[in-house]
Write a structure and sequence with these properties.
Elements (H helix, E strand, L loop, with lengths): L5 E5 L23 E5 L1 H4 L4 H11 L37 E3 L1 H6 L4 E6 L9 H17 L8 E4 L3 H13 L3 E6 L5 H9 L3 E5 L3 H13 L4 E2 L5 H7 L1 H9 L7 E5 L4 H15 L8 E7 L4 H7 L26 H10 L3 E5 L1 H12 L7 H15 L8 E6 L7 H8 L21 H14 L1
Parallel strand pairs: 4-12, 5-6, 5-8, 6-7, 9-10, 9-12, 10-11
Antiparallel strand pairs: 1-2, 3-4
Helix pairs in contact: 4-5, 4-8, 5-6, 8-10, 9-10, 10-12, 13-14
Length: 445
């Protein structure tokens, strides 16, 4: 493993490199974003075919740590982390759902949904958190950190993931949540794992400002996606998608996005495969945003390369209710490199998209509803063509959003006309009444 090497370098290109175990979140020279950079030449000691074979041999194995979809690709992620410091829950390896029925409804031959919510804590955040907490574990044991407290701002899923991995490592975790903006299922996860939860009277951007200042003071280790270690783990989604198609590239990837780290992560994965010869072309990227929290959509629509902060309004897709996305420069670079587009979905559109997808066998979170609603728009306009292969990234498990689901079907979501609501039918315990209702249902099917 020693022949492979990864370090922090400035995203803007400043000189200098820094070890991954150093508690560093921004460039010391320009205060810009950092990225994990790999020495690519040593990785060419294997051919593209040999890398594919190695990754296929490790896929979902029981040999530690290769059961993980992340650590099965360890040479491309954090090659210096040793086996004993890896903190893993066998994250990744999530299935691709063939959306045959939904695809037919919208005139799309080859629709797939990457169910990243089928992970340990129910979201794609596990992919980045295993890398971050493993690197911290190694840094702690090497005496390279002044604090052992892991801390994040969160709208739900990041806090759940950090708390779980912190508990597995035996490291203390503090999470800052915007009070009243996190679902009960998401709130209970960090509480159950023993994290100290602070509910702040602000939104996500306000929580993030506090965490950044705490990290600047050295009081905590910052675990949000401003930390490029998170992006390193999340980039394996791109590699998994291609691997699951027998190393063929899809035409489109559609991604719900708030803080925009996942857009940068996907590009990093595709770019590394391209650099090492595993794929010949990039898929196109659609960054899907809620219309209530759409700073990147606004920049794209105006033809700008800079994302200006906005005040994010309340949205059912609460995890992407972010007006000042930390990873905007990284995401904009990804968008250009992948010939991407940005689309938005209204509250009505995302709620109906979830209900429509659920009727075809999916069980979608509201953030995936944003991505699906944007898919429908792009298909209607002919930007996505009927014979193209499309992958929608589902970022979280729908079971985390029971209030949203029940509210839709009971028609209790404010401002939403639940056109696909399916409320229970209340009947007496009378066989004839029930038989008649079933017959009526069958006649209308």
């Amino acid at each position: 493993m020693a022949r492979y090497r990864a370090v922090f370098r400035c995203f803007a290109g400043c000189d200098g490199e820094y070890p991954l175990t150093q508690p560093l979140y921004r460039c010391p020279r320009c205060d810009g974003l950092l990225q994990v950079t790999h020495d690519v030449d040593p990785l060419r000691d294997r051919s593209a075919t040999a890398w594919m074979k190695l990754f296929d041999e490790r896929w979902m194995r029981t040999q530690w740590p290769y059961g993980s979809g992340v650590w099965g690709k360890r040479e491309w992620v954090a090659p210096d982390v040793t086996d004993e410091n890896i903190v893993s829950t066998n994250e990744g390896g999530t299935n691709l759902f063939w959306g045959e029925r939904l695809g037919k409804e919208i005139g799309l031959r080859d629709l797939w949904v990457k169910l990243c919510g089928n992970s340990h804590t129910g979201s794609f955040k596990d992919l980045g958190m295993t890398v971050l907490v493993s690197v911290v574990q190694q840094a702690v044991r090497q005496g390279a950190l002044g604090t052992r407290v892991l801390c994040c701002a969160s709208t739900g899923d990041t806090s759940a993931s950090l708390a779980a991995y912190g508990a597995a490592a035996g490291l203390p975790v503090a999470v800052l949540l915007p009070r009243g903006l996190v679902s009960a299922a998401q709130l209970v996860q960090p509480l159950a794992h023993g994290a100290r939860v602070f509910a702040l009277e602000t939104d996500f951007d306000g929580c993030m400002a506090v965490v950044k200042e705490l990290a600047r003071r050295g009081a905590v280790y910052l675990a949000n996606s401003m930390n490029p270690l998170r992006i390193e783990g999340q980039k394996t989604v791109a590699i998994e998608i291609v691997q699951q198609f027998d190393w063929e590239t899809p035409d489109w990837v559609i991604l719900p996005s708030g803080n925009l780290g996942n857009a940068a992560a996907l590009y990093a994965g595709f770019k590394m495969m391209q650099d090492l010869g595993l794929l010949a072309r990039m898929p196109r990227l659609c960054v899907a945003q809620a219309a209530q929290a759409n700073p990147m959509y606004r920049a794209f629509a105006a033809g700008k390369d800079t994302v200006e902060p906005i005040h994010a309004e309340a949205t059912l897709a609460s995890a992407i209710q972010i007006g000042n996305p930390v990873s905007a420069p990284r995401a904009m670079a990804a968008l250009h490199a992948m010939d991407g587009v940005v689309e938005q979905a209204t509250e009505q559109e995302l709620a109906d998209a979830c209900a429509r997808a659920d009727r075809t066998g999916l069980y979608t979170c509201p953030h995936t509803g944003v991505a699906l609603a944007c898919l429908f728009k792009l298909r209607e306009r002919g930007i996505i063509e009927a014979d193209q292969r499309v992958v929608v990234v589902s970022t979280a498990n729908g079971l985390k959003f029971t209030e949203f689901k029940v509210g839709y079907h009971e028609q209790r979501l404010a401002g939403i006309a639940a056109t696909r609501a399916n409320a229970p039918v209340v009947l007496p315990p009378d066989v004839e009444r029930v038989a008649s209702a079933i017959a009526e249902m069958a006649a209308g099917a």
